[in-house]
Amino acid sequence: MALRTPIHTLPRRVIIPKITQRHSSPCPIHHARLLATVAPPVTQSSTSSQGPTAMVFMNMGGPSTTDEVGPFLSRLFADGDLIPLGRLQPYLGPLISKRRTPKIQKQYAAIGGGSPIRKWSEHQSSEMCKILDVVNPETAPHRPEGGGAVAFTQYPQYSCSTTGSSLNELWKWRNRLEGKGDTPGAITWSVIDRWPVHPGLVEAFARNVEEQLLTYPEEKRKEVVLLFSAHSLPMSVVNRGDTYPAEVAATVWAVMQRLGFSNSYRLCWQSQVGPSAWLGAQTSDTVQEYVKKGQTDLILIPIAFTSDHIETLFELDQEVIHEAGSPGVKRAESLNGSKVFIEALADVAHKHLQSGESCSRQMGLRCQGCTSERCLEQKKFFVGQENFLSVR
Ligand SMILES: C=CC1=C(C)c2cc3[nH]c(cc4nc(cc5[nH]c(cc1n2)c(C)c5CCC(=O)O)C(CCC(=O)O)=C4C)c(C)c3C=C
Ligand code: FES
Ligand SMILES: [Fe+2]
């Protein structure tokens, strides 16, 4: 990734609101895979001194205008954690992204000219912070020295291609800021690396499904099939041992449990890129096959992302649903501004702050097929913030 803003021009400590303001242009922390939306530190007038609480939201970045699509894709294709092109990355990355830009620009134009991810992420983080202010006052006041920062993934289910890639990026960024490797820095980091079955997340999803079910006539409601749809992964990533498919399935199961298994359901996978083998069944095929079988009442539920983006607004709404040609094929709303969801975020963060843990135990175990030095070093750093955990 090309860092446009020299890192030394950043504030020495993570006084992150300054970074947030740079969102209109690419900045180190607005890597294509690391949209760090930063909630202002929780401040209050109490005298407690547990330290600063900068909440760094890690999320997918997205182009805000169609002009930003080219640079966005070139950052994405330069990211070897996401799209490994080996030594040819510096040559192939720009070529592929350039070729892909016109097609993707049209898709962003069709959803209003840009991605709403940043807008929703900023809303979610600032609303969450207001709640945290009340429920976790002991993390105030903000103190720049010797404090802590929480990297909070906005991907509920962990994948090395999403949260892992963002952490690699954050780790590199942190090293430039504070010195490499084990050098103790001014900031103690901790990571919320996954929360696939948090009851509030499950509740927020379930409510959106129930709301959509109510749009069908009562006598038909039980016959509607629920199609959970998640961004797919290349089979090479799945076979390396990535935990994402299992965690997505866990979310689906938890939502169905909350719904009392009221309807039949399937999990399918969308948005594959390029010609290699990806995890299926594909969402578009699934919808077509069910419609062909006469099952024309279907609710699509985006289950691996917490706000609208091109893959809901374009791929699902304007391609899959449009092509199904059946008024019974619908989509559950994304979590976006859901109050239940924002309360869930605050609860995840609150429990994490209370636990004092550096990250989940699961984060210390690399994929069985992982050969990446960067993963190893990144995990050693984040996991090593707490002594008793080890990295394997
Ligand atoms: C859980 C979410 C996501 C996973 C897992 C994921 C894996 C993954 N993605 C690519 C390649 C691309 N993704 C692109 C866009 C994109 N990806 C996600 C989320 C996940 N990706 C989102 C939310 C978006 C859209 C952002 C927006 O602002 O709307 C793109 C760019 C679009 C395109 O060219 O089609 C690419 C490329 C890979 C290779 C991968 C797993 C290894
Ligand atoms: S690829 Fe999964 S830990 Fe490195
Ligand atoms: Fe993606």
TrEMBL record:
<keyword id="KW-0408">Iron</keyword>
<dbReference type="InterPro" id="IPR033659">
    <property type="entry name" value="Ferrochelatase_N"/>
</dbReference>
<comment type="similarity">
    <text>Belongs to the ferrochelatase family.</text>
</comment>
<keyword id="KW-0999">Mitochondrion inner membrane</keyword>
<keyword id="KW-0496">Mitochondrion</keyword>
<comment type="pathway">
    <text>Porphyrin-containing compound metabolism; protoheme biosynthesis; protoheme from protoporphyrin-IX: step 1/1.</text>
</comment>
<dbReference type="InterPro" id="IPR019772">
    <property type="entry name" value="Ferrochelatase_AS"/>
</dbReference>
<dbReference type="GO" id="GO:0005743">
    <property type="term" value="C:mitochondrial inner membrane"/>
</dbReference>
<protein>
    <recommendedName>
        <fullName>Ferrochelatase</fullName>
        <ecNumber>4.98.1.1</ecNumber>
    </recommendedName>
</protein>
<comment type="function">
    <text>Catalyzes the ferrous insertion into protoporphyrin IX.</text>
</comment>
<dbReference type="GO" id="GO:0006783">
    <property type="term" value="P:heme biosynthetic process"/>
</dbReference>
<dbReference type="Pfam" id="PF00762">
    <property type="entry name" value="Ferrochelatase"/>
</dbReference>
<dbReference type="InterPro" id="IPR033644">
    <property type="entry name" value="Ferrochelatase_C"/>
</dbReference>
<keyword id="KW-0472">Membrane</keyword>
<dbReference type="GO" id="GO:0004325">
    <property type="term" value="F:ferrochelatase activity"/>
</dbReference>
<dbReference type="InterPro" id="IPR001015">
    <property type="entry name" value="Ferrochelatase"/>
</dbReference>
<keyword id="KW-0350">Heme biosynthesis</keyword>
<keyword id="KW-0456">Lyase</keyword>
<keyword id="KW-0627">Porphyrin biosynthesis</keyword>
